Amino acid sequence: MMAAQRLLIGLAGLMGAAGVALAAASAHGADASRLATASAMLLFHATAILATVALLARGLLHGGIGLVAAFGFAAGAALFAGDLTLRQYAGHALFPYAAPTGGTVMILGWLAVTLAAVVAKRNP
């Protein structure tokens, strides 16, 4: 599990960096509201990944479900932000329904965090 957690931390770092870059691009670009939304999703979910990994390390979340949630945050945010960014710069979607699919995956990730907390082993 440690390798998966390190991978998630690395992904969160990349997502954070991309989120800041997209925020800057949206601040300096004309009609770049898509980039601001993409930035927000990356930054929020990078933080959520770090928090989920920390909760997993403390044993406050069910291990397998917590990992699924964190990877869902990474995949969902990448799909969502990638689609919006590609639309902004290339004028076309990543694939049909990429952003809504990413959004759905992020929502499912949050529900998985909830489930991971409920079914986590209780420490006496």
Automatic annotation (TrEMBL):
Q: Give the residue range of the signal peptide.
A: 1-23
Asked if the Swiss-Prot or TrEMBL record annotates the protein with the keyword Transmembrane, the reply is yes
List the InterPro entries: DUF423 (IPR006696)
Asked if the keyword Chaperone belongs to this entry, the reply reads no
Q: What Pfam families does UniProt report for this protein, alphabetically?
A: DUF423
Where exactly are the transmembrane stretches of this chain? 39-57, 64-82, 94-120
User: Which domain of life does the UniProt lineage start with?
Assistant: Bacteria
This chain's protein is named DUF423 domain-containing protein
